[in-house]
């Protein structure tokens, strides 16, 4: 039976402490990669994948995210007066039909699992996507990782799909790590294991398609020693009764949750832009001497 993935959850309630002091008053998700905030890139990926309802799990001091996806009347009026159609288009590019964007307060930053659980009443009984704006990808097909995962999901709509990518095993402590069997069936997963406990060098990246059963398991998942409810731990419990498939992506992953990954994303996206690619190459030559 065909099941359309109509809804996507964007957990954006974290404090962004790794980017302090920049994120003291500005959400990390509003940091720009080239000329668009991180969350705008994630939104575009979801929209291009056919997502119809966008659910943002926010927190205090995140109002600029709400504002970004709304009209900026003074700016739009000014651009119309100047007849600047290109800039007007860019300012309105992330607007969608009223009622199709939802902003929910997480109230406390209690982890990714808790953020997803906050969306339970909006999701209802549908399979849905989860997108982490920190994870960006550069791929040849350029259709977007979520588009590819939704296409993969249509071959087995009873399964949950998690995006995975090869990492250096020495970095296992940063990720949810999975053990994969035949047919890309997930046999086990563990959140941020020590190298000695990691079942593989395959890490979960920030793209998921989940069945609504996940909310039952999230409700019963205890917080870890850091006080957070981890989505990986809930999915691990769910493995006993539900099928998880791994979608392996060969796209180049950029972890914008840290300084170097974020800086690399700006450089790589600039090099892909016809307006900036040559000036950026010259700049890099000058910097490197």
Main sheet: strands, sense, barrel? 7 strands, mixed
Report the end-to-end length measured between terminal Cα atoms. 59 Å
CATH superfamily annotation of the largest domain: Spore Coat Polysaccharide Biosynthesis Protein SpsA, Chain A
* Fraction of residues in H or I helices: 25-40%
How many individual domains? 2
Give the oligomer, counting copies of the same chain as homo and different chains as hetero. single chain
Catalytic activity: alpha-D-glucose 1-phosphate + UTP + H(+) = UDP-alpha-D-glucose + diphosphate
Pfam families: NTP_transferase
Keywords: Nucleotidyltransferase, Transferase
InterPro entries: GalU_uridylyltTrfase_bac/arc (IPR005771), NTP_transferase_dom (IPR005835), Nucleotide-diphossugar_trans (IPR029044)
Report on the structure:
It is a single chain. The protein has 289 residues and is an alpha/beta fold. It has 2 domains: 7-165 and 204-257, Spore Coat Polysaccharide Biosynthesis Protein SpsA, Chain A; 259-289, no CATH class. It is built from 11 helices and 13 strands. Strands 5-4-1-6-11-8-12 form a 7-stranded mixed β-sheet. A hairpin with a 2-residue loop joins β2 and β3 (36-37). The longest helix is centred in the last third of the chain and has 13 residues, at 259-271. The protein is globular and about 60 Å long. The model has no long low-confidence stretch (mean pLDDT 90).
């Amino acid at each position: 039976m065909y099941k359309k993935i109509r809804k996507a959850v964007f957990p954006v309630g974290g404090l962004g402490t790794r980017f302090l002091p920049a994120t003291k008053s500005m959400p990390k998700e509003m940091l720009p990669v080239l000329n668009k905030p991180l969350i705008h890139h994630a939104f575009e990926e979801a929209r291009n994948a056919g997502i119809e309802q966008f659910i943002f799990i926010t927190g205090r001091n995140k109002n600029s995210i709400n504002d970004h996806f709304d009209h900026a009347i003074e700016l739009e009026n000014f651009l119309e007066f100047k007849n600047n159609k290109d800039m007007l288009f860019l300012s309105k590019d992330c607007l969608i039909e009223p009622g199709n964007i939802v902003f929910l307060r997480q109230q406390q930053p209690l982890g990714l699992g808790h953020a997803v659980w906050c969306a339970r009443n909006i999701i209802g009984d549908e399979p849905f996507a989860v997108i982490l704006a920190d994870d960006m990808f550069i791929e040849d097909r350029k259709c977007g990782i979520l588009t590819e995962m939704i296409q993969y999901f249509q071959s087995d709509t009873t399964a949950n799909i998690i995006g995975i990518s090869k990492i250096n095993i020495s970095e296992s402590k940063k990720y949810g790590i999975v053990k994969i069997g035949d047919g890309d069936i997930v046999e086990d997963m563990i959140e941020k294991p020590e190298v000695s406990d990691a079942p593989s060098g395959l890490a979960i990246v920030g793209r998921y398609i989940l069945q609504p059963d996940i909310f039952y398991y999230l409700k019963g998942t205890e917080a870890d020693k850091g006080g957070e409810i981890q989505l990986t731990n809930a999915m691990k419990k769910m493995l006993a009764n539900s099928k998880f498939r791994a979608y392996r992506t060969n796209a180049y992953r950029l972890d914008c949750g840290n300084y170097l990954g974020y800086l690399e994303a700006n450089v790589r996206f600039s090099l892909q832009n016809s307006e900036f690619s040559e000036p950026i190459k010259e700049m890099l030559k000058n910097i490197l001497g």
